[in-house]
Amino acid sequence: MTSHRLRSLGFWSLVVAILAYMTLPTLVVLMTSVNPTEILAFPPEGISFQWYEKALTYPDFQRAFKNGLIVTSLASTAALIVGSTFAWLVHRYTFRGRGLLEAVLWSPLIIPHFTLGFGFLLLGGAFGLQQGYVMIVLAHMVLVMPFVTRAVYVSLANIDPDLTRAAANLGASPFHVLTRIELPLVLPGMAGGWLIAAVLSLTEFTASLYVTGSRTQTLPVAMYNYIREYADPTVSAISALLIIATTLIMFIADRAFGLRRVLAIDTH
Asked: Which positions of the chain have pLDDT values less than 70?
């Protein structure tokens, strides 16, 4: 019993240590965002929300946030259309090269983002599209598409095959089976996948650093450029706003769409 308790204590101590390691940077950012002094300092010497006001009114951040919304909406929607199509093909059909197609679809998860960003930079230069919205959207679409494909594929796999067989036996065409049976059941997965893609696209930095310019920079790139020149807590304030907004969005999405089930985290 003593040995079992020691192992249990050691396991939960490790879990707590890992959670603390993962959440400590977030807590530091949140605390430094209310520091009244004009330099980043921890622990804060008081509480002030002046940096939140500056973060929300700083022109470069406002322009970058608008750029980010444009890129995010286009990239996430394109990833939803393309990713859903590939997820349906991989789930529905068995064909030669299917394994290779799946490997290509999942490859952005393991390829470093700076490699993809540099590749799109060279590709944009070859076609005269460098640092424009086209290359930014394409780069973001490639980066977030695996998450959309995964969400839609899991939703398709969770559909009871007897439903589609019954519809086909009753005379429904493949088109009607797709639009009347499968699509309504997959919509939560598509919505959840799009939302995850949007959050990832809005906060993407590494690849964006290569493919954006001064007029097309997104918010993370604008934050990076700001902190290279200034050392006040404004970046901590905008980071805190992103953390809070992302947490709320993902919580609401999990309640609305069941992201654990969509992403196969919870199969019950």
From this structure: 1-2, 257-268
